[in-house]
Structures are given as structure tokens and as C-alpha cells.
Amino acid sequence: MISNWKTMALAAASMIPLAGAWGQPAAQAPTPRATIAQPTAPATASDPIAPLPDAAVPPPAPVLPPPIWMPGDAQALLTVIPGLAAEGLDPRDYDDSALETTLRQGDPMAMSKAATDLYRRIASDLAQGHVRGADRNEWHIKDDKFGEEEQMAYLRRALAEHNIIGSLRALLPTHPQYLSLKAALARADKADTKTVHRIRLNMDRWRWLPKDLGDKYIIVNVPSFHATLVENGATRWKRRAIAGAIKTKTPQISATATGVVINPWWEVPPSIGREVAGKKGYVAVKGKDGKVQRWRQPPGPSNALGKMKFVMPNSEAIYLHDTNARSRFNSEVRALSHGCVRTQDIVDLAKLLLADDNGEWTPEKVDEQIASGKTVTANFVKPLPVYIVYFSAAALNDGTIVRYSDLYNRDDEVIAALLDGPKKGGMQTAAR
């Protein structure tokens, strides 16, 4: 048996190039290929159908043989599965019977395939969550790229270093809130399935987010109605927020904030155009045919966006902004907007960000611009990410659970997907 394993391992090693950076295989010599016929005269920009020069055609990517596992690495993988429960995953979703069988049979190739499939399924869920696609319920944040190519490169490095357990552990979220939820799960009464499921759900939501949120970012948690500026892992600024009403839910998105518009115009959404049509203080935008296309509200004390809005382009047209109805921040349940996020004291937040990195927009300059009533865009020196998320539970450092209202009734559907066993195509983690 041992000689068989050694023979297979040596044969595989002779076919696999030395590992490059982060487990990527070093380039192999290009495979011979047929010479592409060349035109009698050199191709020029004015000849759009001429073949490209041969040198411009990239060589085919090297085809690597399947990874070969040693029995010790496969056994290490098996020890990982029971511990997945502590990460809010169900060990039963990771069937290890094929790997157990092939280990007993002593078939190196069959065992390696079973181990690779199991490793990728676990790695995918640890890195990007068990719930995928539409089951995430109004989730519009792209996954980190961790598809088949990235997973296989990552696996090859783990095998080369005999570090199966450590490589999987490194895929987990490192955010303090994930760790606090994990502690809360360990303390939870397992008979209290409602609490357990809610903790597991919100742990999975942390896995949906990028592993690296950035050194400085804004995060808005809709169920808690708060917006927070985080820098170097610490809260720098936190205020109340008003999110979308039940009929106009705020989606889960990420965007890059590049600056703010001071004294903004409000472009009235078509869905509520009829509510403002013809009212005093609104300006009609007409087409060439003279018909009203949409409505706008100019800057001023009654402007719905208040004194400022963030510039943060995204597919859902959602952004943070001020409001002319600041008394509503006093409400406990603040699901009142048309989808965008009204943010308490957003002018103060903008002043902080505009002045960072020696920005030219000092707090005094911002105040002068607001007083002028003129619309202007002020850019941050360094753009920063904004995440609008939906965590219906959080945990304190001691593991105590803080529950928020599931105001959009999203949790039950996502919990059902979380409990639904292995996902088809679960190893394929294309960004969504």
C-alpha cells in the first residue's frame, strides 16, 4: 500500500510545476501549436480583418493534473467536519462517506478526487457562505472571486504545505462581530432552535461580505437603524439612520463613496412622481414634445435630501443623505424612506471624510458652501466603501445576543435556504 501511494505521489509530482505566489502554479512551457497564417503585408490599423501577428496570440494555459492527496491530509480534512457546527454550518451537509470509503480501499486517485470535492465544498461555504444567489433575498453585493480556479490554486498550496486545517480556518471572517456571534452560538441553548437559527443565519451573512471590508468604511445596518464609520477596526462615528419603508425596502448593497453633493437637487423617483406633480417647490423636466418627463426639487429648506447627499453610484440608485424632517430620527422604528438612507448628522460625517488625508474641503469651507445655497460636488481625497446590510442579530463581547426586528421579513426565507442541505453548484462561487 505505501509503495503504491509513493508511486502515485512521485508520478504526480513529476507532472506538477513548482508553486508560484499564493499557490499559483509556475508557468509551463507553452504547448506546441499550429502557426497562424500571416498576410503578405503587415496588418495595420486600417485593415480590421487582417489576422493578428502570431506573437499577439497568447499561449494556451497549462493543464495541470488533478491534485494528489496523501492519506494524512485526507484524514486531517475529515477532522474538520465536526467543527463546522461551531461556525454555524451543519456538518451533515458535508458528506464524507466517499472519502472514508476510498481511504479504506486504498485507491489514491479515487481518494484524491473525493477529498478535492469535499475540500472545495467546505472551503466555498466557509469563504462565502452556505446560502447563495437569490436565496440571500435582495442581496446585491458581489462575492469575492473564489471560483474553481482560485479554489484549486488554494488547495494545491494547502497540500504542498500539508496545511489542510489551517488553510480552511484562514477562510473564515475575522470581523469582531462574527467572532462574537460564534461565542453566542456556543453559549446558546440548543433546544432554543429559533435563537440558534438566527445566530447561524447572521453568521452566514457575515460570510457573504468581502473578507476585507477596508481600512475605512461606512456600514449601515438596516434592522438596527444605524450608520457607522469604521476605521482601523474601531468605530469613529455612529448615528441613527432612517431606512426604507416596508413597501420601499432598502436593498443590501455595496458601493464606493467618492464624495458628496452639497445643496443637492432631489430627482423625484418616477414611482412617486404623481405625489409631487404640480406642487409648489417642484420643477418639471420636459421632453422635446413638451410633455413632463419627471420632477425635480431645487435646493432649499424644504428639499427632501436636506443639505447633502453622498455620491455612491450603484445599480439600485441607493445613497445616504440628509433630510429636512430631522425629528423622525427620534422614532424607535425608522422604516420611513423610499429606499435611500437618511442619516442623522450626515454633514458632520461629510466634514470628517472631506478633511481626511489633508483634503481641501475644511469644515469651514463646507459651512460656507452650504450657506451659499449653490450646488457643488466635493470629492473625498480617498474614496471609501459603503455597505448597506441586514443583520437581524448582533452579539456583545460576552456572547449576549441583541435582537433586531426583521422588519422586511427576510429571515425565514434565508433560514430555510440555510437548512436546505448542500447547494447545487455550491463549489461554483461566481460573483453575484
Chart the SSEs and their pairings.
Elements: H1 2-15, H2 71-83, H3 97-105, H4 108-128, E1 139-140, H5 148-160, H6 164-169, H7 176-187, H8 193-208, E2 216-221, E3 226-231, E4 234-244, E5 252-262, E6 266-267, H9 273-276, E7 283-286, E8 292-297, E9 308-311, E10 320-321, E11 335-337, E12 341-343, H10 346-355, H11 363-372, E13 376-389, E14 393-395, E15 401-403, H12 411-418
Parallel strand pairs: 1-5, 2-13, 4-11, 10-12
Antiparallel strand pairs: 2-3, 3-4, 4-12, 5-9, 5-13, 6-8, 7-8, 14-15
Helix pairs in contact: 3-4, 4-5, 7-8, 8-12
What features would you highlight for this structure?
disordered C terminus, alpha/beta, 432 residues, 15 strands, 12 helices
Task: Describe the protein's architecture and organization.
The protein contains 12 helices and 15 strands. By secondary structure, it is of the alpha/beta class. The relative contact order is 0.14. Strands 1, 2, 3, 4, 5, 9, 10, 11, 12 and 13 form a 10-stranded mixed beta sheet that branches. Strands 6-8-7 form a 3-stranded antiparallel beta sheet, with no helix packed on it. The protein has helices spanning 2-15, 71-83, 97-105, 108-128, 148-160, 164-169, 176-187, 193-208, 273-276, 346-355, 363-372, 411-418; strands at residues 139-140, 216-221, 226-231, 234-244, 252-262, 266-267, 283-286, 292-297, 308-311, 320-321, 335-337, 341-343, 376-389, 393-395, 401-403. The longest helix has 21 residues, at 108-128. It starts with a helix and ends in a 14-residue tail after the last helix.
